[in-house]
């Protein structure tokens, strides 16, 4: 975990006191490369120039909202995003995750929980497979590059979010076999995975939009009703 504390973090929130509180707590925990932004414009500038490794993002910002900002970010960056918002409705949480966020926390929050969730994202994105190269495999006309976190299609390259990368890695490790919902939630959210079934469905839908020719009629990532999902990879057992 020590090397992960050298990762660059960006806190985007219009409340100065909250930004300072979060930064102070994170610095106390050993993180030293921390940026702050109070607006969408400032956040985009920092993301383009400093290229942070993770963004903590509020929804209500003076010049826009975090949902729109995340949509624009995904046009040029796959940086992991953790929403930290006072808006705790299920629709907001599912919208944020559906747009490609990696986690969603509601204010008020426990600083220790923020640290645990932030650390979990960093470990999943940057720590796995450091000793071996992640696989590259093909699904139809698409090439899934788990090393770079990209799906290569005939027309464009599409970035995977951190959670999508974790889930696709789990699927590939168990290719052509059923992976239960519990096993997927465990892989994506560690031990604190209860209650994430609906969130898992959002991520599965997003993955299908990237790896399937017809996401509504999938050929590769199949639902096994009552159990979980199965990734079919031809030519591999």
Automatic annotation (TrEMBL):
PROSITE patterns tied to this protein: OMPR_PHOB (PS51755), RESPONSE_REGULATORY (PS50110)
Keywords, ordered alphabetically: DNA-binding, Phosphoprotein, Transcription, Transcription regulation, Two-component regulatory system
Every OmpR/PhoB-type domain range: 134-233
DNA-binding region in chain numbering: 134-233
GO terms under biological process: regulation of DNA-templated transcription
Record's GO cellular component terms: cytosol; protein-DNA complex
Positions of the Response regulatory domain: 8-122
A Pfam family it matches: Trans_reg_C
InterPro entries according to UniProt: CheY-like_superfamily, OmpR/PhoB-type_DNA-bd, Sig_transdc_resp-reg_C-effctor, Sig_transdc_resp-reg_receiver, WalR-like, WH-like_DNA-bd_sf
Residue numbers carrying 4-aspartylphosphate: 58
Superkingdom: Bacteria
GO molecular function, one term: transcription cis-regulatory region binding
Name of the featured protein: DNA-binding response regulator, OmpR family, contains REC and winged-helix (WHTH) domain
Organism this protein belongs to: Paenibacillus algorifonticola
